[in-house]
Amino acid sequence: MKRKIVSSFLLIFVCTTLVFSQERFSLASFNIQVFGQSKASKPDIISEIASIIRYFDLIAIQEIRDKDETAIHVLMDAINSGGEEYALIVGPRLGRTNSKEQYAFMYKTSMFQSVGNPLTWVDENDLFEREPFLCMFQMKEGNFDFVLMNIHTKPDDANNEIVLLPQVIEFASKVFNEPDVLCLGDWNADGAYFKESDYAIVFPDEKYLWIIPNEADTTIAEKSNTYDRMAGTISMQEDWTGDWGVLRFDELPSFIIKGLKPQNISDHYPVWAVFNSFNDLD
């Protein structure tokens, strides 16, 4: 039986610890199912998504589907109307069909700055439906710098794409000259798409840090699945506090008051982890 890490812990932890100190920060990943013009045009939904994102200091977003590429900016306006300023880094539209997606990173400008240029992994053999999107970040206060690798695998090809992720992690480490690389996103790493027992083979724990474990349940579905993951190079172990969770946004007061249904927001919950800002030794 898998378990859901409920939102109440996150609310208490973030509000009492992170807001008053930059010694730690929260990092999250969220597949906002088919995020485009439809959701952006609904005030209750866009405000709730913005509220969810503001719980985190830096967040990776998957499944932006908008040929006009304007919906994400509507969301950013909603996020920044709530107080502290966030910046946006958005990748190119990717996919083999007309239904293309974009990745994005959103982060507090008071805490982070991007380093160098973000890049999309060059997929010469078309092995990924949506190639990983890479970006390096550095703390403004603290010594932690790291590369984030955003990924949304194609469900039917998840097994083939997941086994390639260590190769892309190694590439990211070399191209950014940075040992700390964290791969996060909707991996579809469970259920009919991927055998959980293979996770330890692809990401052996002597080389990689597992943050979202197999027992987590990251979707709103009745059946428990750990589709959304975070795994980093082992060098990140010194930076991770050990805290992680799944934000049950359907338990948030603002969500309940609005009378929304989980599927109005997404079929995935955000996954999150907390890192130290000053422990980095590389």
From TrEMBL:
Q: Matching Pfam families, A to Z?
A: Exo_endo_phos
Domain Endonuclease/exonuclease/phosphatase intervals: 28-190
Gene Ontology molecular function: any one: exonuclease activity
Which keywords does this chain's UniProt record carry?
Endonuclease, Exonuclease, Hydrolase, Nuclease
InterPro entries, A to Z? DNase_I, Endo/exonu/phosph_ase_sf, Endo/exonuclease/phosphatase
SMART domains linked to this entry = DNaseIc
GO biological process terms on file:
DNA catabolic process
On the tree of life, the source organism's domain of life is Bacteria
Q: Ribosomal protein: is it a keyword of this entry?
A: no
Annotated PANTHER family: DEOXYRIBONUCLEASE, EXTRACELLULAR NUCLEASE
Q: Which family does it belong to?
A: Belongs to the DNase I family.
| The name this protein goes by in its record | Endonuclease/exonuclease/phosphatase family protein
Which species? uncultured Spirochaetota bacterium
Record lineage? Bacteria, Pseudomonadati, Spirochaetota, environmental samples
